[in-house]
Amino acid sequence: MARSHCEELTHIVHRYFIWIVIGSYIAAALAPAAGVALQKVRLLDTGAGGAPVTATMLMLFLLLFNAGLGTNAGEIQTLARRPGVLAIGALGNFLVPLIFIVAASFTLAAWHNSDETQQILTGLAFVAAMPIAGASTAWAQTANGNMSLSIGLVLTTTALSPLLTPAVLHAVAGLTTGDYSEDLHELAAGNSMSFLGMWVFAPSILGVLAGRLIGETAKSRAKPYLKLSNYGMVVLLNYANASLSLPQVARNPDLDFLAIMLLVILFLCVTAFAAGWLCARVSGADAEETASLTFALGMNNNGAGLSLATTAMPDHAGVLLPVIFYNLAQHFVAALADRSLFQRKAAR
Length: 348
Known about the structure:
Layout: H1 2-15, H2 17-30, H3 33-40, E1 42-44, E2 53-54, H4 55-69, H5 73-77, H6 83-107, H7 114-128, H8 135-142, H9 147-173, H10 178-242, H11 246-251, H12 255-282, H13 287-298, H14 302-312, H15 320-347
Antiparallel strand pairs: 1-2
Main location: membrane
Transmembrane segments: 16-38, 50-73, 85-108, 120-139, 151-173, 193-213, 225-245, 257-280
Membrane topology: Multi-pass membrane protein
């Protein structure tokens, strides 16, 4: 009985999840006190790289552990059949946004406020440097995508992130100036690898191993509870991280800055989804693989990006804004892609 109620509640939350996320951002802007307090909770004095272990970092760990726990071992074993498609998707996840940022740096050079330009470029760095989001597998499943490829892309980019993320951060640091450039270089030189290794890669792999130990039957029973807890942690993470920057936006909105930032974010998001579709066409992927690649390249793990940006640049709260808005944009564009590219085709 409890399981059926949990499944029903999970279905309702899934249906309205994007609006729940928007609600968490509105709450962060108007009532940030609880989120700020949650950021200040220290569970251990030292963690990865000597940094304190916070409640939000633990939530990120549990979120990715649960994602790994829900991975089907049989689907992972089928990845060896199409290593080329997997490689194209993994490389595209890092290269496409990086190329976009380089192009954006030249375009934004004409913007009247150089500090706002640095905030946008630095925020985009945290988007580009993150592995593929686990949420992409849910969208791929809705579009009848290849689930082994979707899961494989998430795990592969997560495994590569301790190596590729510093490279992306160093590259974007070369496009920025002042404190922004210095902070990105310092982060890439040390803290990013330890952070991603400890709080992104390790929980994902531990979750996969734990799933193999407990078996598919136990995972099936626990699945509704895991999904519901994941939704809760995503909302809490969004609220806590956004509480550091959105209140200032709500008090003193800079309309032209918000407009240019939203335009850049939306353009990046559409470009990333389009690149996933084009990669599928170039590699000769079938319809199922096309769906998986499209959603994978369009959706990054912004929960990890927000946590890393919050930890690394607490004195530059404006840097969080591009990550926050990309998190919203990727779900809206995913819904449009699903409806226009895949569901309409399935109906025909």
